[in-house]
Amino acid sequence: MMSTLILFAFLLWLLLSPLLAPHGDRVGESLVWFFRMLAVPFAIPSRAAIQSAHGLWPVVQAGMRAQDYPGPDGQRPQTSWIWEQLGAVLGVACFIVFGALDWQLLSVTISSIMHLEGGPLPQVGKLVGLSVVLAAGYTVFELFNILQLSPVRRPWCFCSAVWRRRLAILAVATFIATLIAGIAVAVYRQLQINATHQTLVQTVNDPTHLHLVSPPEPLSSILLFTFVVLMWGVLALVSGGSGLHILPLFGGVVVVLKVIATGLLYLAFGACYLVVALISCLCIVMVLGIQLLCLPFRTAWNWLCSFPAAQRWHLSPITAYATPPFLGDEMAQELFPSTLLPYKPVLQPHNTTDKELAMPRALRRFVTLLGGGHTAISGLDSLRLATDRLGATIEVLAQGCIATTAPAGRLRTSSGRDGVIDLTPTGREGGNTVDLDPDSQTHAQAHALANNAIQALFAAAVSFGQIIWCGALDAFMQLAEDLLEEITARQPGQTILAVSMIPTPDRYTARLQAGLQSYVNLHAAGIVSATLLPDERSPLARAISPEAQQDFISTLLASMIRAPRDWEQNPSITDVGRAMGREAETGLVGLSLASECVAPGKQLSVYSGIRRLARRLPARGKGDLRDIIRQGMKAALRAITDPACRAIDETIETDRPFYVVYTTPLHSTDSRWVGFIRATSTWLATTYPDAVPIYASGQGTPDPRVPGSYWIQASVLFALPAVPQPIQAILDRKGLAAQLEPVHSSNGVVADATPELLTTAPVVS
Amino acid sequence: MMASRSSSWDEAAASNLLGLFFVLALVALVFTVWLTVKIIELLVRTFAAHPTNKALLGTAAASVLLLVVVALTGGRTQPIDVLAGISATALIALAAVLDMADDARLRRPMNRDTAVHAVLHEWWPAA
């Protein structure tokens, strides 16, 4: 403690002594020169020895550690008392000399830049404040360098926690003290200048009043005002205190507070003035430097970035644009293969220039959302909300849907926002004419939707894209077949992932079986890679609600859309769809979804204070990595093992490959992101070796049964058997046969879906 | 003799320290520009998310009004200058609170690496 105080006092004197020595003051100048003669020859070799050979610093380290570090067994290490004391003394001495030297060098530099005479001694108020503040900043910089807190350089040494705290306090105190000293000296110089100016003016006007020079502003007003008000306040306090008069007492307190506030305001203005002066000087020098360095800067920067230290600081070379690995292996292929024949669109496409064709892949949108039927529209709306919430809209190229019940007008699809192209056919495109019957209008709409989608993909030059088709099981299936076939034929690079929903039993009709058969056929024909098939009466939907289950599914899809951006090793929708399509005979994929609450952890104190006033604000904090990992594992375990979490009542076969999608409330740029992935993937590989994790950043769907602020969601995608149990139940449902009616379509009569038919469907290899 | 030796030391040291000064100035410039961009981005994002928030609109109106008054008075009236600064600070603080409440992801802990990464790489959110 004593050494710290001595260091502080000496450093303060060191910084103030040259400033307080005016020109012509031989004593002051002699002190400065004496110090420089002492400091320079000692500091240069010492610093060189420490920074190059590290010959002295281990001794200092040993001394510092020996003073404070108790050792693993609680005992002080057996170190010679000489080194204990000498190390600390050497450290303090070195630090003092370094600080002094740095201040001297800085002063010389500023003098050289500003073309000022007189060597290291500052000249006028602004330069005084500037040099002192810079010296303080540089001293703090060096201190924080020692404390391993500097973002620029690696630390010289490793101090114990006690010394770190001690030096941090010292650094802050030094900075504040030098800042105040800088302000004081600047004000002092300014007052000198003003006084000189005023004296000259009065001398010119009236040479006889040389001794009547009034104090310069703001000294006169501040001192006079302060004195008068203080006296008045003291009198008021005395009278109020003796006579028990409340009003004078209150008035006195107010006056004293006002005086203090006025003084603080002047101090704040002085600080602001110095900061502005500092920034302005920095800007002038900086602009000159940039002008000099602008031409070779890029080359020099790239050269500097090649050093290992630059890589540790995450400095990247300057290139034309970043080309991060984006989607999965599928997207690693050439975007414009020569074998792909150009498509001649029906409508006039956008003019695709060479510049647009040369856009990097990272700037492209790859996912198109299509849907048919009113249940699909609600699903698409939910999915768009989820993409907005999770920040996945940037990957969505276009969106559109069709429905039979509203053929005459444009449907509200929530698309067209954030650059998403609206593919929904307009009334004219959808055959909205009086001479067409509703079926023909629907066919025209489907064709128009397919056409719009193909043109959008062509205009965006997306040769290998992904389409998510949201379709009802009991409607539009024949149209969906035609639409998806047309898209696949004209844009063969697209991978289609279908999402449907088994409706409630009151909607079991023959159309349902036809819809199932259509998805099986589309998978067998290689048009649809896989079909996600949740059940509206699943255990999860019964436990929460069908709407909440839909939110879970939308969050899952949005997570899969943005996952390749969050983590390079995440498989894309194409990879997942094709892998699941290979794994499931009929391409049907089941879902199991669970969400767990994550503790907000330590909250920002300001935000907590505001939250006490506004109770509606949710809790916001940094969380804790261990809690996030624990809740992530818990959510995944529940999704895999708990039957109540399944969106379709079918057992998960953990000895077959399946995907676990984590939607975690961590930013992908969070330093804990990698730690979370490492921990959960290791646990998953140990517990379920066939599970493939996917990680996306975003808020998981809140479980309506539990309150919470942050949620982590685990979604499991697993292959369903050829005829899943809920579908078998539909097929076995008594009384359904009486409702069965042949469904006529443009291709003729659709056969009834039977288990034999479903299981004998060709399997995509 | 001593003065001339010291002068040569000073010149050498000045030339060496000039590079450090440039680096510090560059870092200050980058940080200042980054901070400005982040404040603008914060205000744009918050107004886009809460276009009808009365507190936000009121604070923004007060800030604009006071800034206009400051511009008209040329910044010579200190109370108005202080009020303008307070209102601008309140606007930024309110936007920060609303933005924090909207962000359903955990706040990132700030340390040296994240701060450097933020200043060097995160000039605008990637959605």
- Oligomeric state of shown chains: heterodimer
The residue ranges of chain B in which pLDDT falls below 50 over 5 or more consecutive positions are 1-6
Class by SSE composition of chain B: mainly alpha
Number of strands of chain B: 0
| Average pLDDT number of chain B | 78
User: Termini distance of chain B?
Assistant: 65 Å
β-strand amount of chain A: 5-15%
How far apart are the first and last residues' alpha carbons of chain A, in Å? 77 Å
Written description of the protein model:
The complex is a heterodimer of chains A (765) and B (127). In chain A, the strands form two sheets. A ten-stranded mixed β-sheet of chain A has the order 3-2-1-4-5-6-7-10-8-9, sandwiched between helices. Chain A has a two-stranded antiparallel sheet with strand order 11-12. Chain A contains 23 helices and twelve strands. Chain A is of the alpha/beta class and 765 residues long. By secondary structure, chain B is mostly helical. The N and C termini of chain B lie far apart (65 Å). Classes of the chains: A alpha/beta (765), B mainly alpha (127).
